[in-house]
Amino acid sequence: MTLSVEIDSKMVEITVWTRGVQLAKEARDVATLLAVAGSSEGKYTQSFDNYVDLPDRIGVACKSYARISPEPIQTVYEYENGHHDVIVLVEETMIKGHPYLQDAKQDCVVVVNSARDPEALLKWFEPKESLPLVKALACIDANSFGAGVMLTFDGTEGASDDTKIGAGVGAAVAGAAAKASGCVTLESLLAAADNKKAVQQGWDQVKVLPFCDGKPFCETPSDPQELGWR
Amino acid sequence: MTTKKRATGLTAVCDAWQLVDIDVTASYPIRPYTAVFADLAKRIANGQMKCEMVFAEGEHGQFSIAHGASMAGARATTGSSGVGLTYAAEVYSPIAGGRCPIQVLVGDRTLDPPGDFGSEHTDCLTMRDNGWIFGWAQDAQEALDNSLMCFRIGEDPDIMLPQIVAMDGYFVTHITQDYEVPDQDLVDRFLPPFKPKFRLDVNNPVIMGPQITPEMGPPLEWDRNVVMQRAKGKIVEVTEEFGSVFGRHYAPFVEEYMTEGAEMVFLLQGAHAVTCKSAVKYLREAGYPVGMLRLRWVRPFPEEALQAIAAKFKVIGVIDTGTSYGAAGGGGVLLVETRASLSETPDKPIIQGFTSGLGGEVITHDEFFRMAEMMRKTIEAGQLVQSSTWVNFNDYV
Amino acid sequence: MPKKSYPEVPFAAIVPCPTVENDKMVTGNWRSLRPVVDMEACTSCKTCWLMCPDASVNFDEAEGISFNLKYCKGCGICSSVCPVEAIRRVPELDFTD
């Protein structure tokens, strides 16, 4: 038709999947921490929950989003991330039966909160046709660090969140996501989170399985940060 | 000294209500405006605010409670969304006619059917004839500022009308944004305490809203008309005062964006203006002589402000995010009002309607580009090609 | 870029009503722990069948208790009401299906 322009082409989109009620706060914290960390690095950021998910149902799949861009964001009023650079699953079972790879970008990174190794999760990783988009699958056993899960509705539906940000398992998951994807630095994430120890643990102990052309076990990149900015 | 904050439009209005020290508020849940009461309840429980929160049994009850509180001399507020606003339909006119300056927060929501939570402006516009002052905020900062300005305008002894601070559901109510909360001292300077001339008081008994003889009706309605017209001047005055006290200068009625040398302009209100401005920048780079006009008030409708600038343009594309089935022109309320404002203006532009963003959908950059192309075709034709275009349904490009 | 297209919507959005199961709202993927019944311990009292809020426990005279995994949300009520503790809740990823 008329214009064909690239809008928000450099924006990194992080989509966090979780289960309603029990883990919603943790997912929101992951998105908030990554966005706040990105802001402190001078980037333009947003973080928000999916509006349509109706997360006040225990166990339902719901999503939170973070967007980090080196330029001012042009599409500020959006309902969801259009294309995902980083996909985080806060509960491991979600690896089966949910369309987390739909609209994933080329070279996306998937981070799962699981005690299992990435290799063990491979058989659930779906759909197989989307695997060529994946650059790495990472696992972090965030539940083992004893941070606990914060259960609160504070901060939902547009009200302010007066509870701590990044006090529970979300802190470790955010640390793991940052390390595996390189979307923010450790320093800015530590500054943003309440439970800094958990962030460090997530960063240090995440297991990253790199992919090449949809197949796992290719040569490990020396520094995951090379995934960097588009 | 201001406080920088990162929160939503709902929290921003809460901040405003805290600063002005509201006395009474009436709550009832409906998505998406509901969390304003979660926030208020927290602040009251923490002792940050001293306010009576009454749990109403429905929106009709909410508005009536706020009405009664205002009659007793309290600074009263309430809010709603979507069909909640229409549930209270009966009391809008009594409140405005009773000259009780309550403030209502609206987080827009599409009217049922079928129960979509997305934002449309119809819910609030449906009540436009009753004598309330209202307009839309495009972001959290403006929501806070509009709330402060509305108290000042509505409670002014020369006005005494209820106000609605409207904002798009989800876009402004749920997405966190950066804004500044002004200092309490500045707010105290800007807004005096609410001291109405009349209130229900056993020591000075009055009857408010008595049964009247038929001949008293029309004069009362004439009074309401006079005060609504007077509100236009008051809006200009208060907007200037706001600018000098708080340092944020708003256009009193119509914000112009990139209108220099524009042959075509979008005319719209609310959150979609933010995306529109971004789209206008891209369009300008591609050579479209386009600009944007953003309405800050719908009642009183700023016809003089539009008449003063309309002749600069060849086409105005009015974007209605809402419906008015069967209205003249086949579009929404803003299309009718804009055409009515400019019907007698010499050298008036061609005015075409777009209906877009229904059901709370994002108006994408691409859709703005397509609307600009449609306006370009109108300019080429030298006349209306299509009176009203429902984007994605009957586009002619 | 092409125009957005909307789905076909029936008159006044009136749709047929499900009679056996609501296959427009499949909830099996809400579950993270799967109920597993120990047939030796089960007494066929049918308390789990009665209490399941989603009617996702099946009882058959010959086969005994089984679970409708298409819809079971993993709430665990069956497990907690079983008077002989015959129902365990097992992480979904421990299974191969």
Give a concise summary.
The complex is a heterotrimer of chains A (230), B (397) and C (97). By secondary structure, chain A is an alpha/beta fold. Chain A is built from five helices and eight strands.
Explain the overall architecture.
Chain A is of the alpha/beta class and 230 residues long. Chain A has five helices and eight strands, in the order E-H-E-E-E-E-H-E-H-H-H-E-E. Chain A has one domain: Pyruvate-ferredoxin oxidoreductase, PFOR, domain III (Pyruvate-ferredoxin Oxidoreductase, domain 3, 3-Layer(aba) Sandwich). An eight-stranded mixed β-sheet of chain A has the order 2-3-1-4-5-6-7-8, with helices on one face. In chain A, helix 2 links the parallel strand 5 and strand 6. The longest helix of chain A is centred in the N-terminal third of the chain and has 17 residues. The C terminus of chain A is likely disordered. Chain B is of the alpha/beta class and 397 residues long. Chain B has two domains: 244 residues, Rossmann fold (3-Layer(aba) Sandwich), CATH 3.40.50.970; 137 residues, Rossmann fold, CATH 3.40.50. In chain C, the strands form two sheets. In chain C, strands 1-4 form a two-stranded antiparallel sheet. Chain C is elongated and about 60 Å long. The N and C termini of chain C lie far apart (41 Å). The chains are: A alpha/beta (230), B alpha/beta (397), C alpha+beta (97). At the B-C interface, helix 13 of B face loops of C.
Offer a few descriptive terms.
heterotrimer; A: 230 residues; alpha/beta; Pyruvate-ferredoxin Oxidoreductase, domain 3; 8-stranded mixed beta sheet; 5 helices; 8 strands; globular; disordered C terminus; C: 97 residues; alpha+beta; Alpha-Beta Plaits; 2 helices; 4 strands; 10% helix; 19% strand; elongated
